[in-house]
Amino acid sequence: MLRRHVAAPPAARPPAHRRERPPRALLGAAVAVAACAALPLVWLVVRVAGADPDRVAALLLRERTLTLVVNSAVLVAAVSLGCLVLGLATAAALVRVRLPRPGLWWVLAALPLAVPSYLTAFALLAVRPDARGLGPLVAVLVLACTPYVTLPAAAALRAADTGPEDAARTLGRGPVAAFCRVTLPQALPAALAGTLLAALYTLSDFGAPALLRYESFTWAVQAAYEGTVDRTGAAVTALVLAAATLALVALERLARRRSGRARASTTTTATPPARLHPVATAAVAAALAAVAAVALLGPPAVLTGRILAAGGVPVDLPRLAVAAGWTLLLSGAAALLAVAMALPVGVLAARHRSRAVAATESAAYLGQGLPGVVVGLALVFLSLALVPALYQSAAVLVFGYAVLFLPKALGAARSAVERVPPEAEEVARTLGRTPWTTWWTVTAPQALPGIATGGLLVAVTAMKELPATLMLRPTGIDTLATRLWAHTSLGAHGAAAPAALALLVLACVPAALLVYAGGGRR
C-alpha cells in the first residue's frame, strides 16, 4: 500500500511588500525630505555650538532663563490640567449621553481648532482691556486646545469595552461610579496623548502670550530676535525651547503608542448612549453649548459689537481682499508642498520596515517639535547665509510652513496608504504594470481622500501661523494674521476687527470640511 506523502506547509513569510527593499528613488526622496525637516534644528545646534561657550553658559544660567522655564512650566501644567478635565467631560457627554442632533455637537467640539488663540485673546482684551497674566491666558488656551483631548478621548470611549462596567453595575455600583472606575480609565491613555498635544501647542504659542503680556519662551525668542543685534541670545533661548518641545513630542508619541495598544487589546461592545431625564439632558446640552459659544461665537460677537459700538469702522476692502488672497495662496501652496514632501516618507513607512525607514520617518516628524518662532529664526539666517536672493521671499515662507506642518500631512499620508490593501498592488504588478503605474492606477485613487485631509489640515493651520509669518513674509505682503497682529499690537481693536472676522471665516471653512470628512456628522 502506497503511503501518501503530504508536504509540510511552507513557513509563513512576510508579505512581499515588507521583504522587498525600497526603491532607491523613493528612499532618496524620503531622506531628502527628512534632511529638510531637520535643517532648522541642525542650524540651531550648529549656531549655538559655534558661539562662545562662556557666553552660552551665561545665557543658560541667567535668572531670566530660569524665569522663562518656570513661567512656561506653570503655563503648560495649568493648560494641560484644564484641557484634560474639560476634554474628558466633553468626550463623555458626546459618547455616553443621548443628545438632540448628536452630529452638531461633534462639529462644535472640533471647530475651536480653527480659531487662533491670539484671536480669542484679542476678543478678551476688547471686552476687558486689563486682562493680563496667567489666569486669562490659561482660559484662552484651554478653549483653544481642548479639542486635542476631546476627539481622541471620544474615539477611545466609543471603542471601550463596557462589559466590566455592566458587571460593576450588577455588583451595586451606580452608573456614574461604574463609568468613572471602569470605563473611563480605558480612555485615559488617548486623553493623555491629546493632553500632551495641548501642552505642545501651549509651549509653542506666541500670539496669545504676547497679547496677554505673559513672559513665555516664544515671546522671549521673538523679542530677542527683534530687539538685539547679537542674535546669540535668541538662538540659545530658541534651542532651550526646541529641547523642551522635542521632549513633549517624545512623550506624546509614547502615549499614542500605548493608547493604540490599549485600543487593540480591548473588545468593543456596542453600548447606546444613555437616555437621561429631560432636565439632565438639557443641562448637558446647555453646558456644551456654553463652551462652544465662548470658543466659537465669542470672538466674532465681540468683534462685531466693537464695530457697531464705534458706529462702523472704515475698512480698506481692497487691502483686506489682497491680504485674504495672500492667506489663501500661501496656505494652499504650503499644503501642496507639505503633501508632496510627505508622500515619499509616508509610502516608505507604510510599505517597508527597517531601522533606516524608522529613522527617516522620525526625522521627518521633527517639525512637530519646532515652534514657528524657532523655524522662522533658523530660516532667516539660513536664507541669508546660503541663498541671499531668497531672503524674505514667498518661497522661504512656504517652505517654512511645509517644515512646520509636515507631520500633519505625513500622518495622514501614511494612514491613507496603509489602508490600501497591498494585495491589490501585488496583483497589478503580476499583470505587468510598473511600480509607478501601479501607484497612479491602484494606490493613489484609494489613498487620495486621506491625503487630501492632511492637506486641508496643513492649510487651516498655516492660515493661523503667526511668528513664522512675521519673520519670513516678504516685504510689503500682508496676510490676515499679520494685519490682525499689526493692529492689535498697537491697541487698535476696532481696526483689527475686519481682518479678524475674515481670518475666522477662512479658517472655519477647511476646518468644517475636516470634521465632515472625519465623520463628524455621526
UniProtKB/TrEMBL annotation:
Localization of this protein: Cell inner membrane; Cell membrane
Membrane topology of the entry: Multi-pass membrane protein
Tree of life domain: Bacteria
SUPFAM superfamilies listed in its UniProt record: MetI-like
Span of domain ABC transmembrane type-1: 69-252, 324-514
Keywords for this protein: Cell inner membrane, Cell membrane, Membrane, Transmembrane, Transmembrane helix, Transport
CDD domains in alphabetical order: TM_PBP2 (cd06261)
Region (Disordered): 1-20
Main location as per UniProt: membrane
Pfam families (UniProt xref): BPD_transp_1
TM ranges: 25-46, 66-92, 104-127, 133-157, 234-255, 276-303, 323-350, 362-383, 389-406, 439-463, 495-517
Alphabetized InterPro entries for the sequence: MetI-like, MetI-like_sf
Family from the record: Belongs to the binding-protein-dependent transport system permease family.
Protein name stated in the entry: ABC transporter permease subunit
